[in-house]
Write a structure and sequence with these properties.
about 290 residues; alpha/beta; five-stranded parallel sheet; 12 strands; globular
């Protein structure tokens, strides 16, 4: 039987206690970046997964290619249901699985994959709090090299099927309605402006910045305690709806994760985020 999740987050101790359990699938969703602003480039971190180590039994989940829509003009556009199903099945995920996702940074990539799973109706998924950094720093076991065993081809009974996509994503039109007030929502910027370049275009009007760098503890690499998160998100917690965004829609998922932990159930991530907002000349919208 798969381990039962009681939170969107699991601790390193929880994972250590359940590692190797039936139907537990651990995924390394790390992505490596170079550059800032419009010069940012993203690449899969499979080499680091193999050469620098990963949690024993973890499989590498390629967010750049497998869990993003192909042939789009925006990075990390969410995949369609068919592609998502194929990517999940290839990694050994079934509808009976419990999935734990981590990355080797501050959690934006694991949160992105967690959000994608949830958007397709799969709730038995959690983010490893503190990720690989915390796991490694605690001296827990690490494996180097490619995973020697591949996921078995699922049987007809095990084949992974996505559920109906939930309204967990916002597009530009939704954000514009939030800005002009026709459909109010709090707009939260999850990335530090310094990562957007020295001469970036204007942010979405009405933005409230609550960056990932503030909500992740720099010493432990884990999310701060709920009481601290509640103080940080106090300016938006009373909003009926919240839209989080960042550069491309990854860090935004960490803020969405924190808001979910705080019990807010009407959160959307702006898919494409500023990469989408900036690709057209901003229209004249009252702030």
């Amino acid at each position: 039987m798969a381990p039962v999740l009681t939170s969107p987050l699991v601790s390193t101790q929880w994972l250590a206690d359940h590692l190797g359990a039936d139907d537990l699938v651990v995924l390394d969703a790390s992505v490596h970046t170079a550059g800032t602003g419009f010069g940012t480039r993203w690449s899969p971190a499979r080499d680091a997964y193999e050469q620098h180590g990963h949690i024993p039994g973890a499989r590498y989940a390629d967010l750049v290619h497998d869990f993003s829509a192909p042939d789009t003009d925006l990075p990390f556009t969410r995949p369609g249901a068919e592609q998502f199903e194929l990517a999940a099945r290839t990694l050994g995920v079934t509808n009976e699985s419990t999935v734990v996702v981590y990355d080797d940074d501050i959690g934006e990539w694991s949160a992105r994959l967690w959000w994608i799973f949830r958007a397709f109706g799969f709730d038995s998924v959690a983010v490893l709090d503190g990720g690989f950094v915390k796991w490694r720093d605690e001296g827990r076991p690490v494996r180097v090299g490619a995973l020697t065993s591949r996921a078995d081809e699922p049987t007809a009974q095990q084949a992974f099927l996505a559920g109906e996509e939930r309204p967990l994503w916002a597009d530009r039109a939704r954000v514009e309605r939030a800005v002009d007030g026709t459909q109010p929502a709090a707009l939260v910027l999850a990335t530090d402006e310094s990562t957007l370049g020295d001469d970036h275009a204007p942010l979405v009007p009405g933005t409230i910045p609550i960056s990932v760098g503030r909500i992740v503890d720099q010493e432990s690499n884990a999310l701060r305690r709920p009481a601290v998160l509640a103080d940080m998100f106090a300016p938006v917690l009373d909003a009926d709806e919240i839209v989080t965004y960042c550069g491309v829609g990854s860090a935004a998922c960490v803020d969405a994760l924190a808001l979910t932990i705080l019990g807010h159930d009407r959160v959307q991530v702006y898919d494409g985020s500023l990469a989408d907002w900036w690709r057209r000349e901003p229209e004249t919208i009252a702030s």
